[in-house]
Write a structure and sequence with these properties.
With 214 residues, the protein is mainly alpha-helical. It folds into two domains: 1-85; 94-214, no CATH class. The chain has helices at 4-7, 20-30, 35-47, 55-66, 71-81, 90-100, 106-137, 141-148, 160-169, 185-213, and strands at 175-178, 181-184. A two-stranded antiparallel ribbon has the order 1-2.
Length: 214
């Protein structure tokens, strides 16, 4: 049985189905005390995210690495590895969100919010927003914080008023802590409004240009 992890480079392969030896090597990399090894593990995992047979394994190791003490590893695991399954495996990712979202680390909760929760609601709003709201109404302030810093995209964008109502009713007032960034909720809302206005302006300019051509 060939172990491509032991001898190869993730850039040399694509759409890999990891065999038993390769999974063992990836677990060793994920558990390594060396930062470069853990990042390399994520590079290999990303190579195999599109292969159905890898799903459970990648989510398991990806969640393990999301707890990493280094922001680089933590955000990579949430956004680029686990985040790739929000559309296709929502039930598994919801479980990850609940577990990781219980952390005391504001930075990890930020990674979960923008890498997982935001995109889960983007693709599966009707099924999962009631679960989010239920946890918030039961007193889960960490879930409230994550919802507050999640951007409204996809299906969630169609329910912006409903989301905002939950935030207002539960007195959301949080800080977003991303990699080297700390922004209060009010400032984030202003930025979002500015982006919305800019997008409308761009759409108007595009429409005017198309009218001139016709």
């Amino acid at each position: 049985m060939k172990n491509r992890i032991a001898t190869g480079d993730p850039l040399e392969y694509f759409n890999m189905r990891f065999n038993r030896l390769e999974r063992e090597s990836l677990r060793e990399l994920a558990a390594s005390t060396k930062l470069n090894d853990r990042v390399l593990c994520l590079d290999w995992l990303r190579n195999g995210t599109s292969v159905r047979a890898n799903v459970n394994f990648i989510i398991e190791v990806g969640e393990q690495l999301a707890w990493d003490r280094h922001e680089e590893v933590r955000w990579y695991a949430c956004v680029r590895i686990l985040g790739s399954y929000t559309g296709t495996h929502p039930k598994k990712i919801w479980g990850v969100i609940v577990r990781l979202g219980a952390t005391r680390s504001p930075n990890l909760r930020s990674a979960v919010a923008v890498g997982l929760l935001e995109h889960l609601l983007e693709h599966h709003y009707d099924e999962y927003f009631p679960k989010v709201r239920e946890k918030i109404e039961a007193g889960d302030r960490k879930m409230l914080e994550m919802l507050a810093i999640s951007y409204h995209v996809g299906q969630a964008a169609l329910h912006k008023a409903e989301i905002d109502a939950v935030l207002i009713e539960n007195h959301a007032s949080v800080m977003w802590t991303g990699p080297g960034v700390k922004v209060c909720l009010e400032d984030l809302q202003e930025v979002r409004e500015g982006i919305d206005e800019a997008m409308k302006l761009i759409e108007d300019l595009i429409r005017d240009a198309e009218d001139e051509k016709s």
